[in-house]
Design brief:
By secondary structure, the chain is of the alpha+beta class. The strands form eleven sheets. A six-stranded parallel beta sheet has the order 23-22-21-20-19-26, with helices on one face. It has a five-stranded antiparallel beta sheet with strand order 1-2-7-4-5, with no helix packed on it. The model has no long low-confidence stretch (mean pLDDT about 95). It contains 19 helices and 40 strands. It is about 20% helix and about 30% strand.
Length: about 800
């Protein structure tokens, strides 16, 4: 790898050729060579901004000896990021301009026996995007680069949570594939359920000589065959058949996830000459839109069952996505399961996620929703963009549609809504903005290649394209006015049918924050903190959303805890409210599960992979059996949700209590909640009405270890919440510690920030509210060498009381 044209620092130019890894990127190669600091630390993002303005060239040599043994030779690039000229032995064999699709290049006539030189010359992505925006015509977009002018990962140019890398590189594998006779091209094998019967369908194109070929599909020992002269036309093969003995694949929480090995084989004279293998599952999926008296509901239906969606949005797990492999996907998706999620939405400003990601979701029963890669911008429908989009969409659908977890292919993120409400019309000045992609091209490709996967034109969307596209009562909704303009209690102002995005910001864990930022002093507005806060007026919004509930701390440790806590409580409040509206509301997808670098953001898992308090809040709010107290027109009600296959019988003890634990009024409720059902009871007036709002709460409990709900009559800052009094006992275990915390006073949202003891440590519990005399047990993994007293440290053992607690 070598720097060519652009503002190259002297030390980089003098370094000459730099070793490059494939898959890889310019940034990671420069970092590995010791030529640049870690882009994720301090203010390095700014000092490394020159990289995206430079042209870079990769060169290598390989041996072509023995190539005459095959008839055809293809260079196959699984991913080139982004605008590049590819040359073999000094001759250009391809000019590419799309990060999101593979490139197969016939090099049969260019390949030499012996040494061959391969060169990939990248153009600066910033300059390429700027130039393309002039050719195509300027169009509205978020952030500061015209990312919508080229087919590159949008968030590579920076986002309101993302670092601006604008890197280049060969980000997915490259290989020389040699073959003779014939080969399978664009193969797809998928399972479906038709009229209640599992059915398999395989399609492919065949390149080469078709004479004498047969195709065989083998699934779980069952063989299906076609002869090319009778059942193949123009080199396209289709094999399908019923698999009545196959078991159905279900989302997690609804059943098992059986997967079957499936192989499509190409044969000539009985000899196998090519094959394609996948693991498939059998399920039917419907994105159900039903008109009713309240509007148009949206629901995801699997195998005929409406699934209550408890989801989260997903961004690339690293700003350099080539660094994310199967083990990291497994870790992150295990955290999704911990949070009670059953769906992951892959957001449209990132990538078409890898087969490793989807394989993990298949095995775990995590439903997946993949956006096509359009986000927060207007897109030209002119060439060369139109053809590139068509090719990338066909490649993505062909690769991903085998996965049973894939239940939605979605046209874009916020573009239809954006055109309506972000004042695009005047700026477009009559130019195209992407409508033909979302309403014509993409649904046609999905219908042709993957009829078993539902398509939606956008997120948010309303079924009638002329309607308002972010209407609460019709289709899907993104709820961002609350974070941007209001206090989080206003989540309860919204009654959406389905929420595909909403969220609240908070900092990364303390260990991640202090690893990435070395400011001295460290403050919310110190230089490194500002570089790692990408939201417009983000710190102001954090403050505005905090002070109705808690005083704004002057101490950085308390500021970090306050903002982390407020993020968790905000999202927990929203999810519990919207779940209480079922079946009117059928799901929530929190923004967002993960981060791509250390940053203040909406994520529940930070850029170093650590659990933030938000992840625990999501776990509580997404519990299959949930009890929550909510306000309504007639006062307070206890609402219980049962998202399991069994009836839930419970007896709730409901009491209004003073902060010292004394019962002031009581009632009981014996309830039988049907499977996948919801029940509610209006609370008695003497329970729902406080005599001393500052010093009372409602506690409703179905018993120890069962569902519990609480309602505080006053905001913490306006309450009589005392300074926390606790007794802590910590005992070592093989994996870490068992920590018991007994409350001497009411303790609200008790949390152990164990990463402050050991950055690798984690606990199984957080945000626990205790009445006086109650005990919470925390199981801690890691921190094996810690002093037991560390768990009592004021910076480790935290609660809401710490932020407003009053002595006495």
């Amino acid at each position: 790898m070598i720097a060519e044209r652009g503002p190259v620092p002297r030390e980089i130019a003098e370094a000459g050729a730099i070793p490059a890894q494939v898959p890889g990127s310019i940034h990671t190669d420069l970092s590995a060579a010791g030529l640049i600091p870690d882009p994720y630390l301090d203010e390095n993002e700014k000092t490394l901004s020159w990289i995206g303005l430079v042209d870079w060239t990769y060169r290598t040599v390989f041996d072509g000896t023995g190539s005459d043994a095959d008839d055809w030779h293809d260079l196959v690039f699984a991913g080139v990021d982004t605008v590049a000229s590819i040359r073999l032995n000094g001759v250009e064999i391809a000019s590419v301009q799309n990060m999101h699709r593979p490139h197969r290049i016939d090099v049969t006539s260019a390949l030499r026996a012996g040494e061959n030189e391969l060169e990939v010359a990248f153009r600066s992505p910033i300059r390429a995007a700027d130039a393309a925006s002039l050719v195509l015509g300027a169009r509205p977009h978020a952030n500061h680069h015209p990312y919508n002018a080229i087919r590159k990962m949008a968030c590579s140019f920076g986002w309101d949570w993302g670092i601006d890398t604008t890197t280049s590189g060969i980000w997915r594998p490259v290989a020389l594939e040699s073959w003779s006779g014939a080969r399978l091209a664009d193969p797809l094998i998928a399972g479906d359920v038709v009229d209640g019967v599992p059915r398999v369908r395989a399609t492919a194109s065949v390149e080469g000589v078709l004479e004498g070929l047969r195709a065989r599909l083998v699934v779980a020992g069952v063989e299906l065959e076609v002869e090319f002269d009778a059942e193949v036309r123009d080199g396209a093969v289709l094999i399908e058949g019923d698999m009545p003995s196959a078991e159905l694949w279900w989302p997690r929480g609804h059943g098992a996830q059986p997967l079957y090995d499936a192989t499509l084989v190409l044969l000539r004279d009985g000899e196998e000459i090519d094959e394609h293998a996948r693991r498939v599952g059998f399920r039917s999926v419907e994105a159900r839109l039903e008109e009713d008296a309240d509007g148009v509901g949206f629901a995801i239906v699997v195998n005929g069952r409406l699934i209550e969606i408890r989801g989260a949005n997903w961004i690339p797990d690293d700003a350099f996505p080539h660094r994310v492999g199967r083990a990291r996907y497994a870790e992150r998706l295990a955290q999704a399961e911990f949070a009670g999620l059953n769906l992951i939405r892959v957001w449209g400003g990132g990538i078409y996620e890898s087969d490793d990601f989807y394989a993990e979701c298949d095995e775990r029963g995590l439903l997946t929703w993949q956006d096509f890669l359009f986000a927060c911008a207007a897109y030209s429908e002119d060439e060369p963009l139109w053809t590139e989009v068509a090719l990338e969409a066909r490649a993505a659908v062909t690769r991903l549609a085998s996965h049973p977890s894939l239940v939605i292919l979605n046209g874009n993120n916020e573009n239809i809504w954006g055109r309506q409400e972000w004042r695009w019309e005047g700026r477009l000045d009559g130019r195209t903005w992407g409508a033909r992609y979302y309403y014509e091209l993409l649904p046609a490709i999905v219908a042709e290649l993957a009829p078993h996967v539902p398509y939606t034109p956008g997120s948010p969307f309303s079924p009638d394209r002329d309607d308002r596209q972010n209407a609460a009562e019709r289709g899907t909704m993104h709820v961002w006015d609350t974070w941007n303009q209001k206090d989080w209690t206003h989540y309860r102002d919204h009654r959406p049918r389905f929420v595909a995005e909403f969220g609240w910001q908070g900092p990364p864990t303390w260990s991640t924050l202090t690893r990435a930022i070395g400011d001295d002093p460290l403050t919310p507005e110190s230089p490194g903190m500002i570089v790692h806060q990408k939201a417009i007026t983000g710190n102001d919004k954090l403050t505005d959303g905090l002070v109705p509930h808690l005083p704004l701390p002057n101490d950085m440790d308390d500021w970090h805890w306050a903002m982390s806590l407020n993020q968790a409580v905000a999202v927990r409040t929203a999810i519990e409210w919207w779940r209480s509206l079922a079946p009117y509301n059928t799901g929530t997808i929190t923004w967002q599960l993960n981060d791509c670098w250390p940053v203040t953001s909406w994520a529940a898992v930070d850029g170093d992979g650590r659990r933030k308090p938000l992840l625990f809040a999501m776990r509580a709010a997404n519990a299959p059996r949930l009890a929550t107290i909510q306000p309504g027109a007639d006062g307070l009600a206890l609402i219980v949700t049962n998202d399991t296959d069994e009836e839930w019988r419970a007896e709730f003890a409901i009491a209004r209590r003073s902060f010292d634990g004394a019962s002031l009024a009581e009632q009981t409720w014996s309830v039988a909640v049907p499977a996948r059902g919801i029940e509610r009871i209006d609370l008695d007036a003497d329970i729902a009405t406080a005599q001393d709002a500052a010093g009372e709460l409602i506690r409703a409990s179905a018993g120890e270890g069962e569902a519990t709900a609480e309602w505080f009559f006053a905001e913490p800052r306006d309450s009589s919440l005392p300074a926390a009094s606790t007794e802590v006992s910590a005992e070592r275990t093989e994996e870490g510690w068992t920590v018991d915390v007994t409350a001497g006073t009411l303790v609200r949202d008790l949390t152990l920030l164990v990463d402050r003891i050991d950055p690798a440590a984690e606990t199984d519990e957080a945000l626990v509210t205790l009445l006086p005399g109650e005990t919470a047990r925390f199981t801690v993994r890691g921190a094996t060498d810690a002093d037991p007293a560390a768990f009592s440290d004021r910076l480790v053992l935290r609660s809401t009381n710490d932020l407003i607690g009053r002595a006495g």
